[in-house]
Amino acid sequence: MTELDKKINEVFPGLVVRKDLTKLVKGNAIVPSYVLDYLLGQYCATDDEDTIYSGVERVKDILAKHYVHRNEAALVRSTIKEKGRHKVIDKITVDLNDKTGCYEATFSNLGIKGVLVESSIVKKHKRLLVGGVWCIADMEYSQSEDPRIVPWIMNSLKPIQVSHIDVERFLEGREQFTSREWIDLIIQTIGFDPEQLSQRNKMFQITRLIAYCERNYNLIELGPKGTGKSHLFSEFSPHGILISGGEVTVAKLFVNNTTGKIGLVGYWDSVAFDEFAGTQKKVDKSLVDILKNYMANKSFSRGTETLGAEASMAFLGNTKRSVPYMLKHSDLFDELPDKYRDTAFLDRLHCYIPGWEVDVLRGELFTSGYGFIVDYFAEILKHFRNYDYSLEYKDIFELNSTIAQRDLDGVRKTFSGLMKLLYPGKGCSREEMQEILSFSMEGRKRVKGQLLRMDETYIPVTFSFTDKESGKEYFVKTLEEKQYPEFFGENGQVTEEATGQNQKIPQRETSQPALESGKHIQVTENQKGISFEKLFADYLKGASSITVQDPYIRYFHQAKNLSEFIQMVLKIKPVGDEVDVKLITKMDETGSSNQEGLLSRLQENLEGSGINFTYEYDEGNTIHDRYITTDTGWKIILGRGLDLFQQYDYKDAFCLANNIQEERYCKAFEVTYIRSKD
After folding, report:
1. Which residues are within 8 A (CB) of 527 and not within 5 positions of it... i.e. 6 or more apart?
2. Per-residue pLDDT tens for 257-282?
3. Mean per-residue pLDDT over the chain, rounded
4. CA 453, 464, 184 angle in degrees (round to 5)?
5. Picking from 57-71, 428-442, 444-458, which range would have the lowest pLDDT averaged per residue?
6. How far apart are CA 271 and CA 177, in angstroms?
7. Where are the domains of the chain?
C-alpha cells in the first residue's frame, strides 16, 4: 500500500474502497460503477485484506442472487413466485397511469411492468419518472382471480445511493491533504492511476466532474475515440444521465407539450450527449433553438409557462481530423453537425476540453489504489451545487476588461467548479489560484478562438488577468497556439494562414525533379547508418496517398517497423495536411501471431494524428512482391519489405538501436526507385 493510500484510509475510514475491486465483482453484470461501489462500500470499506476478501465474496454473492440478468429474467420471476418474496437489483422506471391515477413501475431487466408504486416513493425519488434509476426492490408475487390485476407487488424500493453525508467531516479531511495528494485522490476515485497521468491530464479528468457540482455548466469535449469521454457521465454518479446524441428530442430533453411532462433537465444534475459529433447527423433546428435559450437563461417554456432547471450539459464527440488540419482548413468544431455549428449555440459553451490531449484508455492507466466510494463522492458534489465559488479570485486577481460577458461567464463557471473540487474549504495559495484561473480561461478561450474563425462579427478579446498585489499580468494561451503558432496571430486570433489565404504556409510538393528514376542501392549484412528517412523520405514528400505492400507484417517487430515508417511519414508531411497510408499484407493463417491486434492498435493510436492508416489482407493470400507506391508517381521496390534490420533489444529504453535506426545492424537488402509518371 502506498503512503497516499495509507493516508486516505486514515483520514476517511469507511468512506473509501480499493478501486480494482469493481472489476473483481462486476463479472458480466451490466451495471454502472456507482452501483458496484455502493455494494463494495457496504462490505469492503477498509484496508484489512481479510475483510476485503470476505466483502468481495459477499458482494459477488449478492449480485449472483439478486442482480437480474436479462437472459435470466424468467428464472428470477419464477424464483419470486415460488419463494413468495425476493429482492432484485434492477433499473426501474415509473410512469403515471392517467386512467387509474396510479404510479406504475417498469423493470428494465426483469421484464415486468404495471407494478404499483406508492406516491410517497415517487415524491421522494422523482428521477424514477424519467430515465430510470438503479434500485434494490423487495418483490412479491400474489396471484389474483382478476386477470387485470398485476400479480407483482413491490414491498419496498431503495435507490442505490447513500442516504447521508457529513460535509464537515469531508472538509476537515480535505485539509489534511496537500493539493497534489488531493488531486491524486480524486483521480483514484475516478479509477485511474495518478502516476500514469500528467498534471494537465489530471485536470482534464477533473474538469469533466464540474457538471456534477456546478449548476447549468455547459461543457464540450471533442477528440479521438477511446479516451473515456462518456465513462464519467454514465458510470460515475446516480445524478447524471448519458444519452445518445441521435436520440435527443425536445420532448425527451425539455417538455412534452402534449402531456405536459417535464423532460430530463428537470430531474438530472447532468445530461450528457454521447456521439454528439458527426457531420452527417440530422438535427432538429427547434431543439438547437431551445438549447440556446436554456443554456443562456437556465429556463425553457411549457406552453405559456416558463420553467427553470439546473441540469448541466455535456456534449461529447469524436474527431477524425488532426488538430493542425482543423486549424488550417476550418476550426475545432469541424466535426459537429451543421445545425450545431451555430455560433450563438457554441457561444453558450463554458469550456472546451481538448480530447486529443487526453490519454487513450489502456490497461496500465487503471488504479488498484483507494478512492472515495463513488456514490458518496457524488452526493458531496451534489451538495456543492448549492454554492457559488465563481468570484473567489476577486481579491487577488483582476480579469482583463476587454473580456466579454459570455467569456466571463465561461471562465467563472469553470473556476467555480474547479475550486469546489480541489479547494472546497476555499483555502488555496495565490499560486494555486493562478493556475486554476489560467486553466479555466484556457477552456473558454478555445471556444472563443473558434467563434472568431467562424464569424468575423465577433470582437477579439485579450484573455489575461492581473495580480493586484504585484501588478503582473498573466496572458493565457491554449496549447494549440503554442504548438501551431503559424495558424494564430496576436493574442491567438485567427490569421490568414488559418483560412488558407496566405501562401507562406508550406505547400505540398508535387514533384521531385532532382530524384533519379531507376536508381538502385544495395545494403550489405551488418551495415549501419541506414534509416527509413534516408531511404524513403525524399521520394514520399508531397504524397497525400501512400500504399505499402508487404506480405509479412505479422509479428511485433514487423508491426514496429511499419509504425516507424508511418512515424517518418508523419514527420515529413506539412503541418496541417493529412496523408493516407494503406497497408496490403497477407493474413497469418497459422494464428501464431497477434496480427489483427497489432494492426488495429496501430490504427487506433494514429487517429487524430494527420495520418489516416488503413490495412487490408490480400484476398487470395498469395502476394509476394514488396513495394511502396505514391500518388506522386513513385514506386519503390523493396527486396525485403520493411524488415531491414537485425534483432535488437526493443525492451531496453537505453539501447541506442531501440531509438535510432542508424545504430541498428542491417540485413542484406536491395531497393529500386522507379518514377511511373511525370
Report:
1. 665, 666
2. 777 788 899 989 999 999 888 888 88
3. 90
4. 100
5. 57-71
6. 31
7. 70-159, 165-372, 389-499, 520-675
Q: What are phi and psi of 81, to 5 degrees?
A: -65, -45
Q: Which amino acid is at 433?
A: M
Cα distances (Å, whole numbers) of residue 453 to 230, 449, 485: 28, 7, 15
Residue type, 576: G
Phi, psi of 353 (to 5 degrees): -85, 125
CATH topology of domain 520-675: Endonuclease; Chain A (3.30.870)
b/e map 168-189, b = 16+ CB within 10 Å: eebeebbeebeeeebbbbbbbb
Q: Which amino acid is at 134?
A: W
- C-alpha torsion sign, points 148, 152, 153, 156: negative
What DSSP designation does 677 have? -
List the Cα angle 189/195/198 in 5-degree steps.
Answer: 95
Domain 70-159 is in which class? mainly beta
Q: In what order do the strands lie in the sheet containing 133-141? A: 115-117, 102-107, 85-97, 133-141, 152-159
Cα gap 558→551, rounded to integer Å: 11
CA atoms of 596 and 136, how far apart (whole Å): 42
Contact predicate 350/218, CB 8 Å = yes
Residues 412 and 416: their CA atoms lie apart, in Å, by: 6
Q: What pTM was estimated for this model as a whole? A: 0.79
Domain 165-372 falls under CATH 2.60.40.1090: no
Cα 595 to chain centroid, rounded: 27
